[in-house]
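Repro case for the chain-ordering regression, as requested:
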Amino acid sequence: MNQDVIIEVTNLVKHFPLKKSLTQTLREQFFYRGKEPIDLKVHAVDKVSFKISAGETFGLVGESGCGKTTVGLLLLKLIEPTSGVINFRNEDISQLSEGEIKTKRKEMQIIFQNPYESLSPRFSVLDTIAEPLRLLKIYNSEDEVVERVKETLKSVGLPQTEDFLDRYPHELSGGMRQRVGVARAYTLNPSFIVADEPVSMLDVSIRVGVLRIMKDLVKKFQTAFLFITHDLALARYMCDRIGVMYLGRIVELGKTEDVINNPLHPYTKALISAVPDPDPEATRTEEIPIVGEIPSGLILPQGCRFNPRCIYAEEKCKETDPDLLEADPTHLVACIRFKEVNNLVKEGEVE
Amino acid sequence: MGTLGFIGKRILFAAFAFFVALTFVFLLYRAIENDPVNVFAPAGHHGITDEQKEVLIKKWGLDKSIPEQFIIYLSNIFRGDLGYSFEHGRPVSDLILERLPWTLLILGTSTILSTIIGVLIGAYIGWRRASKLDATFVTSSLILNATPLFFTGIFFIYFLGYQAHPEKNDWKIPYPIFYSLVVLVIIFILIYRRKGKTFKEKMQFDRSFSSKIGLVVLLGLILTLISLNFSDGDLHLWFPISGGKTPGIEDQGSIATLQNIFHHALLPILVLTIYGVLAYGWFMRGNIIGVLTEDYVQTAISKGLDENEVLYGHCMRNAMLPVVTDIGMSFGSIIGGSILVEQIFSYPGTGDLIYTALLNSDYNLVQGSFIIITALTLLGLVIAEVLYSVIDPRVQRS
Amino acid sequence: MYKLQSNKTLQRRWKTWKKFWTVYKSNRLGVIGIVILVILIVLAITADGLTPYGPPGPDEINLQESGMDPRVWTIPIPFTTIELGPFWNPFSDHPFGTTELGFDVYTLLFFGLRVSLAVAFISGIFVVLLGTIIGVSSAYVGGKVDAVIMRISEVILVIPPLPLLLMLASVPEIGGGTTTWELTAILIVAIYWPVSARLIRGQALSLKERTFVLSAKAAGASTPYIIFKHILPNVFPLMITMMITAMRQAILFEAFLAYLGFSDPLNWSLGFILNTAQAEAAFTRGAWWLMFPPAILIALIGISFAFIGIALDAIVNPRLRKR
Ligand SMILES: Nc1ncnc2c1ncn2[C@@H]1O[C@H](COP(=O)(O)OP(=O)(O)O)[C@@H](O)[C@H]1O
Ligand code: SF4
Ligand SMILES: [Mg+2]
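-- result from build under test --
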């Protein structure tokens, strides 16, 4: 089983320090001398751990701004992690330099959220898809490159004609663009792919097509697939396991069905209850409100980061910041009161 | 920090830029000529005596090392001493102070006029964008912008000044006839632009149209009355083409002097105003179009709010702010334009001063005028930025 | 195999140009601008063949070469005075008349056109080249270098440009030299590069943050590759519009300097003809032919640049096209 694990991250942390303006620095120097420096940073990703095996799709779910994209970029080393370990095929890549990581690039790729932004407007379809092949010098002849591009185009269900190869992004529909994005990620035949909300910018009607293509490709090539989304329904369709993120931390992690049918963390419960139920007869928990605004990642709440909005919060929640606890071996939750919380709900239902 | 910090920063920047300009001028004249005495106190220059030369060398430390000279130069300038013009035989600061009011007269008047007219015209044209009027405005401003300002000036001199001068030419149009013609043409255009196919349909006057025509006629009358004052007894449309006033006019009393000065300033102001109106009108038109295409304005219009209220009550205010700053920002180029205008009209302002100084190799004067012009420009810039930041705190972030 | 690829890219590039030209053709102003400009350029290049005299030399006076007597002009024409100095009028053998010294204006116009266009093109090209190099590297290096470059450019921008230009242009005269046309171009570049550098830096900064750059990085691209393959091609349209604007400005700057007399006495520009006219008081003596033709040519160059700029703008920002 362990050989199958493609990527494993442990305690991944990314902070974005706020840039200080000149006047701020001056003020600190002259007026706040000796006092603690004002050191603000966004806790975009805070101690995130998970692993993905070959052929498995892992979903990261959470509201926008909770740090999902940042996790994706960190895994590909497109930004440098503050701390933590990223084991890619049993090798820690978190400390590799830019030159060293280049050899790993053909193994890991990313599909971006916005197909209108992620394709260079001055690159034709051929150039876009062939760019990774050319950059990493996979083939020595241009014919082989074109051959490979056509092959990938076929696997994402796009035409392989010369005319199509010569088209520019502005001559493609949104769905086509995103398929080109998928094709670009798959030309290198990587063993790990991050898909950052790949369909959120697309029309609802064409989403399923793109999702199905990705699902098939994952099965076919046994890719480790990180699927990032804010939409639980999509996660349910795509993923084997999901992690729910809140303010840079995974608060619940488990098999998709477990998490969605039996959410343990108060935040997950709230998320799921907010999703309109497609099946009106299904018995569902009553709507659980989330009180208050989402706090910024700039100043984290003391203790459990969900406590200002949690309806189950108690005094002790303000003291300890919970790590992931095992509810059962495959279902982890970051809530010190998860047992009581879930009993509470059951009692409520009995009454 | 907020507004005060922003203002402080901009003042610091202006001071820095001024210092850079000072250093630049200093180094420029020292880099090209090893011995600064040859530049600033040249031997054998007809306006300079040996004693004066000695005084100059001593005062500006022209025989000392470059760093020493620089310090003396700075301290002299900050004491307000800009040097001595041997061409005029007077201190530079006196000369500039004497000429500055003339420049301020034409620059100030034309800037105020062109802002007001430009903003109004620009707003109206932006509001009626993509109309025939808009196309006319766009093409004419393109053509005028490609025409050098000095040529437009010469053009005016030729037709309104020289050729029309009653003593020089028999091409004379009396004021009343000239303005009647203008009024007739405007009325004709107004009628021509009305709805309706036949002439009869076009001629169906309602009250607002009649009042429009009345306004035009009234304007013509007022212009005639005003211009009769300048006609020196004969009813001809002409403007003086050189100088700031007729020599010796002071003897005829202060009212006559004022009139004379105004008469002389009209053409320079006209030329500067035309370019200013186009520049601000163009800018304003773009801003108005930008504001109008914003969503909330669109909803306001679709809700059926009064068009005038939307345009003048709301859009104008938002679109005008950048124009106000632009006045400060473009102070530098306005001053550049004044050099040309003053040169063409032989107008006795600072622009003419710096130009003739260059021609006469009077480098003390060149240096002094440049420093003053730069200081004025930076001052305008800072004032505009401060005003803007007080009105609209958003700019501070950019 | 490389040949095949380059052939293909050439083909594709050709296709893009053809597409561009189709869009451009639909803009009437743009076509007018191009036509005017091309005609002017052709006239300037073929100037030697079009006129019987060479460019004005230091002591060569074309009138004397022609061996004609000045005639006094008697045909009354509106807006002109009867009295005539030694100017030759257009109804003589000189189609555009002569200057007081007898330079054939027809000849001067063609050579002036050549000098003015040369100054415009050279300064336009260098403004953009310098602006691109400085702007892109400033955006990519960032930090203190970026801050310093931006400060410098801001200072140059706030110092009034025309007085600065005048002062700089006067410098050679101290050493007894003259402002050659090359020097004029250099001066224009020196005071105008900040405009293009700042614009291009802004665009490079925003392009740098675009996802496709990140995507290229994920595909193993190095920074030089990203700059040359992703940033520069996307900056290119701005470079072209910027170049047109710079040329338009350069024409006016040059005319300004030359009109005030800071010009190459051996290579008369259009502005310098106007300077001569002013110096010889041509207008008040009725020699309108010394004033209007060069001024109209200057305006034509400016207008053609403006029209081309507008057409390019409409292509680059399609949002403008709808209005
Ligand atoms: N380059 C950056 N600099 C500073 N803050 C950033 C940067 N990128 C992301 N952030 C911050 O990190 C947090 C997480 O962002 P992101 O990962 O994009 O969230 P998500 O993808 O879940 O919407 C946000 O609060 C965002 O403002
Ligand atoms: S630890 Fe406390 S505050 Fe946090 S989720 Fe659990 S009950 Fe809510
Ligand atoms: Mg995101």
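Ordering looks correct now. The radius of gyration of chain C is 24 Å.
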